[in-house]
Amino acid sequence: MPDLSNRLEKALAMTEEAAAVSLFYFRKNPKTETKADLSPVTQADKATERSLRDSIQLHFPDEAIFGEEFGQTGEAAAMWIIDPIDGTRSFIAGLPLFGMLLGFLIEGCPKMGVIRMPALGEVYAGGKNLPATCNGTAIHVSSCRSLAEAHLFINEGDKLALSEPEAFQRLVRSGQLRRLGADCYPHALLARGHVDAVVDYDLQPYDYLPVSAVVEAAGGVMTDWQGNPLTMTSDGRTVTAATTELHAELLEVLNRP
Fold first, then answer.
1. Alpha-carbon torsion, ordered 122, 128, 130, 133, to 10 deg
2. What is the pTM of this model?
């Protein structure tokens, strides 16, 4: 196993440097294009990913890189995975809830992750046998075990309502407190103990693998909708929960006939 502590230290420095790139463009109407999947991409997304790639190649030249904007570079068991701006639509709209995700994988399994919120000045980090932290202070998930008592985030609610209408209707009647959201921040709040559960939809590996490393380091659970571990080939539907009991209850809600 590579030295994860060293990689986490470097990842925090690399994302801090790249955050300055994102913030340079924030609320300045950067040039925006539409990708083949109809999602937007800005010059800030590309410039931020270039910053991260340049730093990784400088410090870890023999390791592969997979990023949202520029695909995969290199072939190696050790791979860095990048989402330079998680929440490009929020970024375009001037909403400060966009994030930056950087993860480190071995044979496709997440071993370490960073969730940085540039406009909020918050950075969450953690990994296998490493503590979960927010701005350097240890964090942990809540002890909530019952969906009836849970603070539940339903991410990508518009997509869920169209593609999984029955599951969506069950979700909006679940939990003690519900919020509709998007992107990585609800997962970070779960790792910090403010949110108990997050159901997410239509994600890519760079959206969920870095996040899962932080959530699990904080004591939480993050899987696909069938309860399987997340991999590079997962279908993009995820369940994040503070406890195994809450996770099991959510799986039942999502998969009820």
1. 20
2. 0.96
